[in-house]
Amino acid sequence: DREKDIEKIKSIVYDYAIDRKGGQILFPTFSFMRTQIILSLLYDLFYDDEKFTCPIYVASPLACKICDIFDTHLNGNDAEKWKMIRGWSSVQYIKDFDTLEAIVNKHQKEGTSAIYLAASGFMVGGYSVYLAEKFLPSAKNILAFCGYATPTSLAVMYFLTKKRLVVRLMRRID
What does the alpha-carbon distance between residue 3 and residue 1 come to, in Å, rounded to a whole number? Predict the structure, then answer.
């Protein structure tokens, strides 16, 4: 049920980014809609939370472009809400790999927490694969899969094994 899922996301953020400093959270997301939905959910959960000081990175050139399109194509209450989300100082939009790599290295060196929304949602390529390779070796980090997962996806393999998934991912980053 949706309320339980939302509570799980809130719990993950508290466990890995607020209570335990230095945790990195990766939400593998699709550029269209899943990124915007998770970003909206994080806004609803943490915008007014004084304990929440963790940066959120939208790490996908395509997701960033789609967020830009939302700026001009939403109407009414949706447009107002999106404008507030886009103005949230916790969110940064990463459009290139060099910037992402520098941010990840900075957080790892400083031991500070961060949340990443990165494509590809099915973890077959893109920035999510790079981030998973960086984060999986440490128990203080987590991959938070949300939404549908194909039967052969990493999300399903993790769910079925009920243990920490350690995988060497093949990646191609353009």
Answer: 6
Rounded CA-CA distance 26/37 in Å is 15
Contact 156, 150 (CB under 8 A): yes
Q: At 50, phi and psi to the nearest 5? A: -65, -25
Assign 90 to helix, strand or coil.
coil
Residue 103 tokens, joined: 């941010």
**Structure token digits, residue 67:** 């967020």
Which tens digit of pLDDT belongs to each residue from 34-49?
999 999 999 999 999 9
- Please, what is the Cα angle at 156 between 155 and 159, to 5 degrees? 90
pTM listed for this prediction: 0.88
